[in-house]
Specification:
Number of strands of chain B: 0
Structural class of chain A: alpha+beta
Largest sheet of chain A: 11 strands, mixed
Order of helices and strands of chain B: HHHHHHHHHHHHHH
Number of strands of chain A: 23
Chains: A alpha+beta (539), B mainly alpha (314), C mainly alpha (305)
Radius of gyration of chain A: 23 Å
Mean pLDDT of chain A: 84
Radius of gyration of chain B: 24 Å
Structural class of chain B: mainly alpha
Distance between the termini of chain A: 11 Å
Largest interface: B-C, 67 and 50 residues
CATH class of the largest domain in chain B: Mainly Alpha
Helix content of chain B: over 70%
Number of helices of chain B: 14
Oligomer: heterotrimer
Distance between the termini of chain B: 12 Å
C-alpha cells in the first residue's frame, strides 16, 4: 500500500531537475527531431518537479468516481471556465503537446516539434489519429483549431498568446508551421495548455454546440451529462496511445462544498477529488487509505493596487503595505501552515529566473511601515480593500492580510464580493486595493508577461505601466539564450519588488486526494491533470 | 363560484406578468456580467466585449425583454448564457427533486403534527400540552440552516451513519436515494411540523368551544368520536390553508437546505444563476417559482372557498 | 425554512373590537403596559432575556474581553482561561465574537423591522382607510410581494445591491413591509366602520388625524405582535444570509457566518454550538413573546386558557 506522497522540501531537492537532465529526457522523449534545430537553446527548461506515486503493474478496467470541485459551466474547448472543467475537457480532447509524468514537455498529437528558426515553429502531426466519431485527425483540423483560437469571435482564453502569430499553414509531410513576427521562446507551453485543444473541423462546422457536447481524440469519449449530478466519460478504444487509458470510464460528480467532497472520499463514495481544502489536508495525509498528491509552488496570492489612486499611487505607501505583513504568520492563519511566505520573488525554485538573493526583501517590519506612513502624513491609514468570498483560498489570505496590516496602522475596510461582482469591480478599478490569487500557468517565467507587462491583462486592471519592466519582459520573451533569460528575469523580479505593481503574499499547497487503490497518478503543478489517462485501479 | 375562480385566475396572470418584469429589470441593474463569468480571469476587455455581442447582451433592453417574454409565454425560457443548455430543460430536471423534498416534508409534518396538535388541544394546559407546545416553539425558532448543519455534523460527520454522498436518482438507486432524502427532509419537517402543530392546536381549541361540539358532548357522544367526527373535520380547514402556504414558502426557501445537503434542486440552480448573472436562468427559475407559489395560493383559496362558503362572498 | 407570521395569522387576522378598550390616555396605557408584562411568564421571561441580550449588545464595545477581530492566538484552541470559548479558525476570541455578533444580528433586525413597520403601517392605514384605487394598488402589490419566498427575495436583493449591513437592512425591510401592511389593513377595515370613527368623519376631521388618533391606537395590538414575530424571523433571515456569505462581511462576526465558518471544525464543537444556541434562544424568546402578547391582547382565546 503506497503511503502518502507530499512535496516536502527534502523530496524537492531530490527531484529538482537540472538543466542537463531536463533536456536529455526531453530529447529522449522524442521532443525534437526536425533537422537544423539546436535543441539546447530551443526548448524552454521545465521547472517544477512532479509528484509521482509509486505503483505496480497497470491493470485495465474499472470506473473512477471523481468528486469535482465545480460543476463545469460548459464544454467550450477554447474558453476557460475554470481548472476543474479544463481538466475534464483534457480527457476528451487532445493537445499538440503535453506534460509527461516527469513534468517534461513532450509531443502528444505532435510527433515531433521544434523551432526551425527563431520565428518559425514546426510540428509534425502524428498519423493515424482518429476522432471519436471515426473521422481522421488531419493537419487541416490542427490548422482549423489554432485559427479558431486566434479568431476574436471565439473569445478564446489563449488568443493573446497568438497575437504575434502571423501565419499558420499546413506543410509537407503532415506538418504545421507557425510563423511569428517576433521570437517567442515559451510558446510551446501554450500548446500544452487545457484550452489549446484540437477539435474536428467538420464537427464544429456541422453546427453542433460545443458548449453542451464534446467530441475529440482524447483518451475518453463523452457519454452524457446530467447537470448538477454527473458527467460520464467512457474509454476510447481507438486512442492513439495504445494501451491507454486503463480505466473503462470516469464519472465526474460535482461537489462544490468542500467538506462534502472530502467526506465523500473518506466514505468511499468517490475515489478521487480535486482541490483538497486546507482544513482536511492533514486528515487525509494521516489516513492510510488515502493518498494526497500536491505541490506548494504554483498557487499564490497577491495584493494589488490601482496605481492612479491616491495614496497607493505613492510607492512608499505601497512599500508600507508590503512591509506591514508577517507572511509566515499569514500562512498559519490562512492555511494552517499549508503554504509558504513570499518575501522575495515569485519565480519558484527550478524555474529560470529564480532569485534566492531576493528572499527576505519584504520580511515584516511594522515599524518601518509605520514610519513610511508617517513620512507621507498618513499614519494611520484608512483604506478600502476588496476580495472575494467565493473562494476561501483567496478570502482567507485576505482576512489574514487585513489583520496583519492593522499592526502597521493600515486599517483596511475589507469588502468581500461574490466572484462575478468581484471580477467586475477589479476590472472597473472600483477599489484602490484588492487581494486575489491564481496559479502560475506554465513552467516558464514568461507567464509574468501577462501579469506585469503594460499590454497584459493585469496592467489594465492596475492602471500600471513601467517601461523598464516592459523592456525586460519583451526581451525575455523573445530571447532564446538561457543564461541571458536567467538574468533578465532576475531583473524583472528585482524591479517588481522595487516598484511594487503588486505585492506577493503567500503560496498555497494545492493538490488532489484519492483512495489508495488509485494508482499511476502524477500530480502536475498548475491545473493540468493529463496524467489521469495513466491511472488504473488496484483491487 | 366560477366567477370567483375566474377572478382569481385573472389575478394570477397579472401577478405573474408583473413578477416577470420586475425580475428582468432587477437582473439588468446589477454589476457583473456573464461574459466575464465565461471567459475567466485573464480575459481582456476586447474579449469580453466580443463575448457580450455573441451572447446578445448588447441588444436594446426592450428587445431583449419582449423576446424573452414572448418565448416564455410559449414555454421556451431561453438558453443559459453560461452553459448553453435549455433553461426549461434544466428546470424540468430539477423541479421534481425540489417538489419531492417539499412533498415528503409536508406529508411527514402533517402525519406528525396533526395528531400531536390535536392531543395538545385536547389536553390543553396540562403537561402534554406544555411539552408539545414548547417543542413546537423550539422547532419553530431554530433556523433551517442550524438544524441542517447540526444534523449533518452529528449524523454524517460524527457518526457516519448517513454520509453525505453523491446524488443518486430514484430510478438508479431507490434505496440510496431514500437515504439521501432523510436528513434534508428531516430538517424541513422539523420547522414545518412545528407550524402545523400550533395551528392545529389553536384551531382545535377554537372548534372545541363551538356550540355543535358542546351539543354533541351533551348528547353523550364518546369524547373520541366527538373529536374525530365533529371537531377534526372543522379544525382542519385553517390547517389546509397553512399547508398551502407552507408549500409555497418552502419552494424558494429550500435554498439553504439544498446548499447544505448538496441537493440538486431549483434553489441551487437559482443561486448559481444569480452568482453568474445568468439572466435567462434566473428569470426562468424565479418565474417558475412565482407561478407555482401563486398557483398554490389560488388552489388553497379555491379549496378554502369550497369548504367555507362565507369566504367566497368576501 | 421557517413559516411566516402571515401564515400563522391566517384566520386570526381581524382583531376583536374589544381591543378598542386599549384606547385611552397615556397614564392608563403605561399602567396597562406594566400589567401586560407581568401578566404572563410567556411575556415577562422573554422580555427579561431580550433586555439582557440587548443590553449586552449595546455595551459590547466596552464589555468584550478581547478585540473580536484581532488575531490573538493560535487558531482552534479549545476553551481556556483566557479565551472562555476558545479561538476560531483565524485565532480570534470566540466569546468576544459571539457578543459582537449579537450586536450585528439584533441591530440589523431591529433596524429592518422598524423601517418595515413604519412604512407598512402607513401603507396599511391608507389602504384600509381610503379604499378605492389606493387600496387596490397597495394590496395587489402586497400580494405580489408575498408570493415571493422570503429568502429568494432577500438573496436576490443583496446580490443586486451588494453585501453590506445597510443593504441587508433594506432587503429585510422590503420583505417584511407587506406583512405589516396586511395586518394593519385588516384591522383598519374593521375599525373604520366603528361609530366613533364615523363620528369623527362626519365632524370633518382630516384623514390623517382620524388615522392617527382613532384608528392607530386600536390596531396597535396586532402591530406589536407582528413586530415581535417579525423580529424573530428577521434574525433568521439575517443569519441565513450571513450563513450563505451574503451578510456581514469579514471580519465582522454574525451568528450566521460564525456557524458557517465552524462547519469543518467538528473537534471544536463550541464553535458551532454557541452561535446556534444564541440564535435559537433569541428567536425563541421573540416568538414566545409574540405568542404571549397575542394571547394577552386578543381576548378571543381567553376562554381556552
Amino acid at each position: 500500500m503506497s503511503g502518502t506522497q507530499r512535496n516536502r522540501p527534502a523530496n524537492r531537492r531530490n527531484t529538482t531537475i537540472s538543466r542537463r537532465t531536463a533536456l536529455s529526457s526531453a530529447a529522449a522523449a522524442g521532443a525534437v527531431g526536425l533537422s537544423g534545430i539546436s535543441a539546447a537553446s530551443a526548448m524552454p527548461r521545465i521547472s517544477f518537479p512532479a509528484t509521482r506515486l509509486q505503483d505496480g503493474e497497470p491493470k485495465p478496467g474499472g470506473t473512477l468516481r471523481y468528486g469535482l470541485s465545480t460543476d463545469p459551466s460548459n464544454f467550450e474547448p477554447h474558453v476557460s471556465t475554470g481548472g476543474a472543467s479544463g481538466n475534464l475537457k483534457l480527457m476528451v480532447y487532445s493537445t499538440l503537446l503535453c506534460y509527461n509524468a516527469d513534468n517534461q514537455l513532450v509531443g502528444d498529437l505532435a510527433e515531433e516539434f521544434g523551432w526551425v528558426d527563431d520565428t518559425t515553429f514546426q510540428l509534425k502531426i502524428r498519423e493515424g489519429v482518429i476522432f471519436h466519431d471515426g473521422s481522421d485527425l488531419t493537419v487541416d483540423d490542427v490548422v482549423f483549431s489554432l485559427k479558431r483560437i486566434q479568431n476574436p469571435e471565439t473569445a478564446a482564453t489563449n488568443a493573446p498568446y497568438f497575437d504575434n502569430v502571423t501565419d499558420i499553414v499546413a506543410g509537407d509531410g503532415n506538418t504545421v508551421n507557425l510563423t511569428f513576427s517576433v521570437p517567442f521562446a515559451a510558446f510551446p507551453f501554450i500548446l500544452a495548455d487545457n484550452e489549446s485543444l484540437i477539435v474536428s473541423q467538420s464537427w464544429i462546422e456541422s453546427g453542433v454546440d460545443p458548449k453542451t457536447t464534446m467530441m475529440g481524440s482524447g483518451p475518453f469519449t463523452f457519454v452524457e451529462r446530467l447537470p448538477g449530478i454527473s458527467i460520464t466519460l467512457n474509454k476510447n478504444p481507438n486512442y492513439f496511445h495504445s494501451g491507454l487509458p486503463y480505466l473503462d470510464s470516469i464519472v465526474y460528480q460535482p461537489m462544490a462544498d468542500d467538506p462534502t467532497r472530502v467526506t465523500a472520499l473518506r466514505g468511499s463514495s468517490v475515489d478521487f477529488i480535486d482541490y483538497v481544502p486546507y482544513t482536511q489536508m492533514d486528515i487525509i495525509e494521516e489516513d492510510p487509505n488515502l493518498t494526497f498528491a500536491s505541490d506548494s509552488e504554483t498557487g499564490f496570492g497577491w495584493l494589488g493596487f490601482v496605481h492612479d489612486w491616491d495614496p497607493v499611487s505613492d510607492v512608499n505607501i505601497r512599500k508600507a503595505f508590503a512591509l506591514g505583513m508577517d507572511r509566515e504568520k499569514m500562512v498559519q492563519t490562512a492555511f494552517a501552515g499549508h503554504g509558504s511566505p513570499i518575501t522575495g520573488g515569485l519565480i519558484p525554485e527550478g524555474m529560470i529566473g529564480h532569485s534566492p538573493d531576493l528572499e527576505g526583501t519584504y520580511a515584516p517590519d511594522y515599524e518601518q511601515a509605520k514610519s513610511l506612513l508617517t513620512d507621507a502624513g498618513m499614519n494611520p491609514l484608512e483604506i478600502d480593500m476588496l476580495s472575494t468570498s467565493t473562494y476561501s483560498v483567496i478570502s482567507r489570505p485576505a482576512e489574514a492580510a487585513q489583520a496583519e496590516l492593522e499592526q502597521a496602522n493600515i486599517n483596511t475596510n475589507l469588502q468581500l464580493q461574490e466572484w462575478l461582482t468581484f471580477r467586475q469591480s477589479v476590472a472597473d478599478a472600483a477599489f484602490p486595493v484588492h487581494v486575489w490569487g491564481t496559479a502560475i500557468s506554465y513552467g516558464d517565467p514568461d507567464f509574468l508577461w501577462q501579469m506585469l507587462h503594460s499590454k497584459g491583462t493585469y496592467a489594465a486592471w492596475f492602471h500600471f505601466a513601467d517601461e523598464k519592466l516592459d523592456a525586460l519582459l519583451d526581451e525575455g520573451r523573445v530571447s532564446t539564450d538561457e543564461a541571458l533569460r536567467n538574468e533578465i528575469y532576475h531583473d524583472v523580479e528585482a524591479r517588481t519588488l522595487e516598484i511594487l505593481p503588486w505585492s506577493y503574499l503567500i503560496r498555497r499547497t494545492q493538490g488532489e486526494a484519492m483512495a489508495a487503490k488509485v494508482k499511476g497518478y502524477t500530480h502536475l503543478p498548475s491545473w493540468n491533470q493529463i496524467t489521469l489517462r495513466e491511472v488504473w485501479l488496484e483491487d | 363560484m366560477s366567477v370567483f375562480v375566474a377572478r382569481r385566475l385573472a389575478t394570477l396572470v397579472i401577478q405573474v406578468f408583473l413578477v416577470a418584469t420586475i425580475i428582468f429589470l432587477m437582473m439588468r441593474l446589477v454589476p457583473g456580467d456573464p461574459a466575464r463569468a465565461i471567459l475567466g480571469e485573464t480575459a481582456s476587455d476586447d474579449q469580453v466585449a466580443t463575448m457580450q455581442d455573441k451572447l446578445g447582451l448588447n441588444e436594446p433592453m426592450l428587445e431583449q425583454y419582449t423576446s424573452w417574454l414572448g418565448n416564455a409565454a410559449q414555454g421556451d425560457l431561453g438558453k443559459s448564457i453560461i452553459s448553453g443548455r435549455s433553461v426549461s430543460g434544466d428546470i424540468e430536471a430539477r423541479i421534481w427533486r425540489t417538489l419531492e423534498l417539499i412533498a415528503i416534508s409536508i406529508v411527514l409534518s402533517v402525519l406528525v403534527a396533526v395528531p400531536l396538535g390535536t392531543i395538545a388541544a385536547v389536553r390543553a394546559n396540562r403537561f402534554a400540552d406544555y411539552f408539545l407546545s414548547t417543542l413546537a416553539m423550539v422547532g419553530l425558532s431554530l433556523p433551517g440552516f442550524v438544524v441542517g448543519t447540526l444534523l449533518l455534523v452529528v449524523f454524517a460527520l460524527h457518526f457516519q451513519i448517513l454520509p453525505q454522498t453523491v446524488f443518486v436518482s430514484w430510478a438508479d438507486d431507490p434505496v440510496g436515494h431514500m437515504k439521501l432524502l432523510i436528513l434534508p427532509s428531516l430538517t424541513l419537517t422539523l420547522s414545518n411540523a412545528a407550524v402545523i402543530l400550533r395551528m392545529m392546536r389553536s384551531s382545535m381549541l377554537e372548534v372545541v368551544r363551538q356550540d355543535y361540539v358542546r351539543t354533541a358532548r351533551a348528547k353523550g357522544v364518546a369524547e373520541r368520536q366527538v373529536i374525530r367526527d365533529h371537531a377534526l373535520r372543522n379544525a382542519i380547514n385553517p390547517v389546509v390553508s397553512i399547508i398551502g402556504l407552507e408549500a409555497s414558502t418552502l419552494l424558494g426557501g429550500m435554498v439553504i437546505v439544498e446548499q447544505i445537503f448538496n441537493w440538486p434542486g431549483l434553489s441551487s440552480l437559482l443561486i448559481s444563476g444569480v452568482l453568474s448573472r445568468d439572466y435567462p436562468v434566473v428569470q426562468g427559475v424565479v418565474l417558475v417559482i412565482a407561478v407555482l407559489t401563486i398557483l398554490i395560493n389560488v388552489i388553497v383559496d379555491i379549496t378554502y372557498g369550497v369548504l367555507d362558503p362565507r369566504i367566497r362572498m368576501s | 425554512m421557517q413559516s411566516l407570521p402571515a401564515s400563522r395569522d391566517a384566520g386570526q387576522e381581524s382583531p376583536d373590537s374589544s381591543s378598542a378598550s386599549m384606547v385611552g390616555t397615556n397614564p392608563s396605557r403605561m399602567r396597562s403596559v406594566g400589567k401586560l408584562i407581568r401578566s404572563s411568564p410567556r411575556i415577562s421571561v422573554p422580555i427579561v432575556f431580550l433586555f439582557l441580550v440587548g443590553l449586552i449588545s449595546l455595551a459590547a464595545p466596552i464589555l468584550v474581553p478581547h478585540d473580536p477581530t484581532a488575531l490573538l492566538a493560535m487558531p482552534l484552541l479549545g476553551p481556556n482561561s483566557t479565551y472562555w470559548l476558545g479561538t476560531d479558525d483565524f485565532g480570534r476570541d470566540e466569546l468576544s465574537r459571539l457578543i459582537y455578533a449579537g450586536r450585528v444580528s439584533l441591530g440589523v433586525s431591529v433596524g429592518a423591522v422598524t423601517i418595515a413597520a413604519v412604512i407598512g403601517v402607513i401603507l396599511g392605514l391608507c389602504a384600509g382607510f381610503y379604499r378605492g384605487v389606493v387600496d387596490f394598488i397597495i394590496m395587489r402589490s402586497v400580494d405580489m410581494m408575498l408570493s415571493f419566498p422570503t429568502i429568494v427575495l432577500a438573496i436576490a436583493m443583496v446580490a443586486f445591491l451588494g453585501n453590506s449591513i445597510r443593504n441587508i437592512i433594506i432587503a429585510i425591510a422590503l420583505v417584511y413591509i407587506p406583512r405589516f401592511v396586511r395586518v394593519v389593513y385588516g384591522s383598519t377595515l374593521t375599525i373604520r366602520n366603528a361609530e366613533f370613527v364615523e363620528a369623527a368623519r362626519v365632524v370633518g376631521a382630516p384623514g390623517f388625524y382620524i388615522m392617527r388618533k382613532a384608528i392607530l391606537p386600536n390596531v396597535a395590538a396586532p402591530i406589536f405582535v407582528q413586530f415581535s414575530l417579525s423580529l424573530g424571523f428577521a434574525i433568521l433571515v439575517e443569519s441565513g444570509l450571513s450563513f450563505l456569505g451574503l451578510g456581514a462581511q469579514p471580519p465582522t462576526p454574525s451568528w450566521g457566518n460564525m456557524i458557517s465558518a465552524a462547519r469543518p471544525f467538528i473537534d471544536q464543537p463550541q464553535l458551532l454550538i454557541a452561535p446556534s444556541a444564541m440564535i435559537g434562544l433569541t428567536i425563541l424568546a421573540l416568538n414566545t413573546l409574540g405568542d404571549g402578547l397575542r394571547d394577552a391582547l386578543d381576548p378571543r382565546l381567553h376562554g381556552s386558557r
